[in-house]
Design goal:
single chain; alpha+beta; 15 helices; 757 residues; nine-stranded antiparallel beta sheet; globular; 25% strand
C-alpha cells in the first residue's frame, strides 16, 4: 500500500487521494488550435468570464445554452478530465403538462457528450425512465460575437466589423462576421436532423459585452470594463421528442469554425480550422511509475495537460502557454516548459527552438519591440493583430526569452549529444548572444535590461510582467531601463553552456571569450545586486543605478543560473525559506513584510509553481537538497487540493496553518491548464533525482535525494542521446540504489560512484 505524502515541515499530514472529478464552475477542453471554455453544465455564457469556443484568437461561439422544455435541466455531475472530451449528466426538473400525469424530477435522463477535434461535436441522449409516455423539447440558443481574445480581455478596439444575422438551411445554421479587413468568419452548426422550430433574434434586449467586469488581462489587478460592441444576434433551435416509457432518443450536432479570406489577386480561399492535430496519446513520453499512487496520478495529469497544450500553430508545433488567455506561441513560457520537460522529451525542446529560431528578430521595429537576434514574446493571429491594434505579429517585448533560448540550446545538447543540432542552432544562438551584448544592454552598464516599451506593449518585461510587479519598498518610482536580477543569472548560464558547446564542437577561442564574458558579469553582479543591509539580492537595478531592494523570489532563479557565490547561496536559501517568504505551500513571489505585499495579487505575494521549480533546481545545484525536496513535497500536496489534481498557473500566498486544516487558495483568473505549471512536477522529479546528462560523452550522472514519501521511481523509455534507457531508483534521501538498462554502452555515475558501464 503506497505511503501518503508527508509534509516535511508542518505536522505530518497523510494525503490518500486526489480530487478526480470536481465541480469547479468552469470546464476547459482543447485539441489543436480549438479550445472551449464553458461552465460546468457545458453552457457558454456570462456566468463564466471569457467563456466561448475559440480558434486563432477569435471567439467563434459566445453563447450556447441547452434547455429542456424551456427550463435548465438539473446538473447531476460533469467531468472534463480527458481534456478533449466533456461529459455532462442531467436530470429533469419537475415538469407539468407534458404527460397525463406530473413528471417527477430525475425521471428523465439527459446526457451531453462533447468532443473537441476539428471543431466541437456533441451527442445528446434523452431517456424516459417513466412508465408513461412523455413529450419533450430540447432548445439550443446560440450566438457568436467573433470578438478578438484581446477584446475579450479588456483591450480597447479601434474598429469593429459587422456581425451578420444567423441563417438556416435545412439541418445547418451559420453564424457570421465580416471583419474590418474583409475576412469572413463563420460558425457552422450542423444537426443530425432539422429543427422543428427556428427563431432568429436580431439582438434586441441582448448584450454580450456585460460579461467581463474583471480585467481579463491577468496581472493588472484592477477592474477594466470592456467596450460595448453592440447587440449580438442569436438563433433559437427547438427539437421535439415523443418518448415512450423506458425509451430513448438521440440528437447530435457538429460545430465548425470557418475562416474565409481574400487574397491579393482577388481569389477567395478558406483557412482550415485545423490540420488534424496528432491524437493526444501520440506525444510519447517515458513511462514513470513510483511507489506513491497519489503522485503517479498527479504526474499523469501534468503530462496529459502538456500533450493538450502542444499546438500546431502556423509555423510549427510548440507548447501554448495556457488556457484560456494564452493559447499562443510564447517565447519565455514555451522555453521554460521545454527546459522542464527535457527528461521526458528532448524533442519538445528541439521543436521549441526551431519555432522560435524561425521568428528570431532581424530588424529594429519600435512598435513590435523587434531587434536583431531577439526572441519573440508572444504571437497572435486574430483581427486586432492583423489590423495592428496590438503589436503581437509577433511581439518581442520580453527581456528574458533571448538568454533562455541560448540556455535551452545548451541543455538540449547535453541531453542529445548531437553535433547536427549544434550546427543547426549555432548561428541563432550567436545572434541571441549578439543581442544580449548590444541591444540587451541599453545603457552600457554591463547588465541586460529593458527600457521604455512599445505604446501597445508591456511596461514590465520579465516573467513578472504585471504593471505593479516591480516596486521600491519606500514607494519611490522605479526608473527605466531596468535590469532584473534573475535575467543576469539566465545570461550567465547561457554563456557558460554555449561555451561548453563550442569547446566540444565549435571554436575553443569562442568558448574562452564566452567564459570570460560570463565571469565578468558574475563579478559585476556580486558588486551591484547584493544588498548588505538585507543580506539578500535586490530585485532589480533601475536606470538611475539604484538597487530595488524588495525581497522577492527573483534571486532564487539566480541559484538556477549558477551565478551566485557559494558563500551567499546559503543566505539566499535561508531567506527564501523564512516565514515571510515561504507560505507552507511554496515560496511566495514577494515577502509578506513588503509594504506592497498582497497574497491575492498576481505577482506581489502569490505562489507560482514554475517559479518554485526553478528555485528548487537552484537549491539542489548548490547542495541544499532537503530544502529542494521540501518544495517538491509541498507543491505535490498543493496539487491534490486543486481540480483534477492540476497545479494552476498560480495560487494565492496565504499561509498554511496545519491546526486549521487550511488549503491553497485559487487565484481567480489563473490559466489552467497552463504550460510551465504542468511542467513543474515532471521537472521537480528530475531535480530530486539529480540527473546531469552528458550524452556526447555517453555518461549520465545521478545525485538522488528522495523525499520520505517517494522511495521507488521506475522510468521506462527515457531518451538519452541515441539511447533508450530504463532506470530504477530505490531508497530514501541520499541512501539509494540505482539499476540501469540501456540499449548501448553507457556510463552511469551515482553519487560519484560508477554503477553501470
Amino acid at each position: 500500500m503506497p505511503r501518503g505524502l508527508l509534509h516535511p515541515v508542518w505536522p505530518k499530514q497523510i494525503v490518500t487521494e486526489t480530487r478526480g472529478v470536481m465541480r469547479t464552475g468552469t470546464m476547459v477542453l482543447k485539441q489543436g488550435e480549438i479550445f472551449v471554455v464553458s461552465d460546468e453544465r457545458g453552457d457558454i455564457g456570462r456566468t463564466v468570464a471569457g467563456a466561448g469556443l475559440y480558434f486563432r484568437d477569435t471567439r467563434f461561439l459566445s453563447d450556447y445554452q441547452l434547455l429542456l422544455n424551456d427550463e435548465l435541466p438539473d446538473l447531476l455531475d460533469s467531468s472534463g478530465t480527458q481534456n478533449t472530451v466533456g461529459m455532462f449528466q442531467f436530470g429533469n426538473p419537475l415538469l407539468d403538462g407534458v404527460a397525463a400525469q406530473t413528471v417527477l424530477p430525475n425521471t428523465i435522463g439527459i446526457q451531453r457528450y462533447r468532443v473537441i477535434d476539428q471543431g466541437m461535436t456533441e451527442q445528446i441522449q434523452i431517456r424516459n425512465y417513466n412508465s408513461f409516455p412523455v413529450s419533450l423539447s430540447l432548445t439550443f440558443i446560440v450566438s457568436a460575437d467573433f470578438r478578438d481574445i484581446f477584446d475579450v480581455r479588456g483591450f480597447r478596439r479601434m474598429k469593429r466589423g459587422r456581425v451578420l444575422l444567423p441563417r438556416r438551411d435545412e439541418n445547418e445554421v451559420v453564424l457570421g462576421y465580416r471583419a474590418v479587413d474583409g475576412h469572413l468568419l463563420e460558425t457552422v452548426l450542423h444537426f443530425s436532423r432539422p429543427p422543428d422550430e427556428t427563431a432568429i433574434v436580431a439582438g434586441a434586449g441582448y448584450t454580450a459585452e456585460l460579461e467581463e467586469l474583471r480585467a481579463m488581462l491577468p496581472g493588472n489587478d484592477r477592474v477594466v470594463r470592456s467596450e460595448p460592441a453592440g447587440h449580438t444576434p442569436r438563433a433559437s433551435l427547438l427539437f421535439r421528442f415523443e418518448l415512450k416509457p423506458q425509451s430513448e432518443a438521440m440528437l447530435s450536432l457538429t460545430l465548425t469554425p470557418r475562416w474565409t479570406e481574400s487574397s491579393s489577386d482577388g481569389q477567395v480561399h478558406t483557412v482550415a480550422t485545423t490540420k488534424g492535430p496528432l491524437p493526444v496519446a501520440s506525444e510519447r513520453f517515458p513511462i514513470v511509475e513510483t511507489n506513491n499512487e497519489v503522485f503517479n496520478g498527479l504526474l499523469d495529469r501534468s503530462l496529459r495537460d502538456l500533450r493538450t497544450l502542444i499546438t500546431p500553430f502556423p509555423g510549427g508545433r510548440i507548447v501554448a502557454a495556457g488556457i484560456p488567455w494564452f493559447v499562443a506561441p510564447f517565447g519565455r513560457d514555451s522555453l521554460i516548459t521545454a527546459l522542464q520537460m527535457l527528461m521526458f522529451s528532448p524533442q519538445m525542446a528541439v521543436d521549441t527552438l526551431r519555432f522560435l529560431a524561425r521568428q528570431q528578430g532581424t530588424r529594429v521595429n519600435p512598435w513590435t519591440g523587434e531587434e536583431p537576434g531577439k526572441i519573440l514574446h508572444e504571437q497572435r493571429f486574430g483581427e486586432m493583430a492583423r489590423l495592428s491594434e496590438v503589436p503581437h505579429v509577433p511581439y518581442y517585448g520580453t527581456v528574458d526569452a533571448t538568454p533562455l533560448f541560448v540556455l535551452l540550446f545548451g541543455e538540449v545538447l547535453r541531453w542529445t549529444g548531437s553535433r547536427e543540432l549544434f550546427d543547426e542552432f549555432r548561428e541563432p544562438a550567436e545572434r541571441a548572444i549578439a543581442w544580449i551584448n548590444r541591444y540587451g544592454d541599453s545603457n552600457g552598464d554591463g547588465f541586460v535590461d529593458y527600457g521604455q516599451p512599445s505604446r501597445g506593449g508591456l511596461v514590465n518585461q520579465g516573467w513578472k510582467d504585471s504593471d505593479d510587479s516591480l516596486q521600491n519598498p519606500d514607494g519611490s518610482p522605479v526608473t527605466p531601463p531596468i535590469a532584473l536580477v534573475e535575467v543576469q543569472g539566465y545570461v550567465y548560464r547561457a554563456k557558460r553552456v554555449l561555451a561548453d558547446a563550442h569547446e566540444r564542437w565549435g571554436d575553443p577561442r569562442r568558448a574562452e571569450e564566452l567564459r570570460n564574458e560570463a565571469e565578468a558579469l558574475r563579478q559585476r553582479f556580486e558588486e551591484r545586486f547584493w544588498s548588505e543591509g538585507d543580506q539578500f539580492y535586490g530585485q532589480a537595478i533601475d536606470g538611475t543605478g539604484r538597487l530595488v531592494t524588495a525581497i522577492s523570489s527573483n534571486p532564487g532563479h539566480c541559484l538556477f543560473g549558477d551565478i551566485v557565490s557559494p558563500e551567499r547561496a546559503a543566505l539566499v536559501a535561508e531567506r527564501l525559506r523564512a516565514a515571510d517568504m515561504y507560505s507552507g505551500w511554496g515560496i511566495r513571489t514577494l515577502s509578506s513584510l513588503m509594504p506592497h505585499y498582497n497574497p491575492m495579487s498576481y505577482h506581489n505575494g502569490s505562489v507560482w509553481p514554475h517559479d518554485n521549480s526553478l528555485i528548487a533546481a537552484g537549491l539542489r545545484r548548490y547542495g541544499f537538497d532537503e530544502a529542494a525536496a521540501d518544495v517538491f513535497s509541498d507543491l505535490v500536496n498543493a496539487a491534490t487540493h486543486f481540480p483534477y489534481g492540476r497545479l494552476p498557473e498560480l495560487f494565492c500566498g496565504f499561509s498554511r496553518e496545519a491546526e486549521r486544516y487550511t488549503f491553497p487558495i485559487a487565484y481567480p483568473v489563473s490559466c489552467s491548464p497552463q504550460a510551465w505549471a504542468a511542467g513543474t512536477l515532471p521537472y521537480l522529479l528530475q531535480v530530486v533525482l539529480g540527473l546531469e546528462p552528458d550524452a556526447a560523452a555517453g555518461q549520465l550522472t545521478l545525485r538522488p535525494y528522495l523525499p520520505d514519501w517517494l522511495d521507488t521511481v521506475r522510468i521506462r523509455g527515457m531518451q538519452f542521446g541515441d539511447r533508450t534507457i530504463d532506470l530504477t531508483i530505490r531508497g530514501r534521501g541520499r541512501d539509494v540504489e540505482v539499476m540501469v538498462d540501456a540499449e548501448h554502452e553507457l556510463a552511469v555515475v551515482v553519487n560519484g560512484q560508477v554503477v553501470a558501464r
